[in-house]
Design brief:
The complex is a heterodimer of chains A (about 110) and B (about 120).
Chain A (H helix, E strand, L loop, with lengths): L8 E5 L4 E6 L8 E7 L6 E6 L4 E2 L4 E4 L5 E6 L8 E11 L2 E8 L3 E6 L1
Chain B lengths: L3 E4 L2 E4 L5 E7 L5 E8 L3 E10 L2 E4 L7 E2 L9 E3 L8 E8 L10 E2 L3 E5 L1
Parallel strand pairs in B: 2-11
Antiparallel strand pairs in B: 1-3, 3-8, 4-5, 4-9, 5-6, 7-8, 9-10, 9-11
The chains are: A mainly beta (about 110), B mainly beta (about 120).
């Protein structure tokens, strides 16, 4: 079965980069890698997603290993507002079609220290 | 504003009393899904729907029913709730395509306690 594995928690200092790892060794060729974050008492919100190539947006960067068995979410300069639980998610595909199934990791709680 | 709206947000109910948690989205999304979130277990998918009248089981469907009669609505039904269904529930939606990369929008969650 598809699975993602993340560290339970990480700490960072404010204004420093943060690298959040995720292992997804069971990923299939067309499964997408998504990252979401969840603030207390809120639903998860989108951060970034990718398939094979590294991706950048205004929030973060996503580095995907060449074999796609792992990925790293990079927050370039952590702020106190980035303190949240970060989820690595596989959105499963069958061929080129979306199966509708999502596999969540356990999430990494990021603590940002001033 | 793009929204996924769940109701009720908080509910305490008794064992065996049927309840429905509604979910509505205003983005004309084909895909909708329900999750439950429990301490130490993270988020787990209950049911999902790829389009109207098309639903399928996720990882933890036991004790739940869903229906998708309209594109915008995807209610979660607990026919006979039990205490082990006490949890935080999230509804989500996204557009569909031939690829699996579309952004998923989550509701704010519904806290359900079954006593």
């Amino acid at each position: 079965d598809a699975k993602t594995t993340q560290p339970n928690s990480m700490e960072s200092n404010e204004e420093e980069p943060v690298h959040l790892p995720c292992n997804h060794s069971t990923i299939s060729g067309t499964d997408y890698i998504h990252w979401y974050r969840q603030l207390p008492s809120q639903g998860p919100e989108y951060v970034i997603h990718g398939l094979t190539s590294n991706v950048n947006n205004r929030m973060a960067s996503l580095a995907i290993a060449e074999d796609r068995k792992s990925s790293t979410l990079i927050l370039h300069r952590a702020t106190l507002r980035d303190a949240a639980v970060y989820y690595c998610i596989l959105r499963l595909s069958h061929g080129s079609s979306n199966t509708g199934k999502l596999i969540f990791g356990q999430g990494t709680t990021l603590q940002v220290k001033p | 504003e793009a929204q996924v709206t769940q109701n009720p947000r908080y509910l305490i109910t008794v064992t065996g009393k049927k309840l429905t948690v509604t979910c509505s989205q205003n983005m004309n999304h084909e895909y909708m899904s329900w999750y439950r979130q429990d301490p130490g277990l993270g988020l787990r998918q209950i049911y999902y729907s790829m389009n109207v009248e098309v639903t399928d089981k996720g990882d933890v469907p036991e004790g739940y029913k869903v229906s998708r009669k309209e594109k915008r609505n995807f209610p979660l039904i607990l026919e006979s709730p039990s205490p082990n269904q006490t949890s935080l529930y999230f509804c989500a939606s996204s557009s569909m395509g031939t690829v699996a990369g579309n952004t998923i929008y989550f509701g704010e969650g519904s806290w359900l306690t079954v006593v």
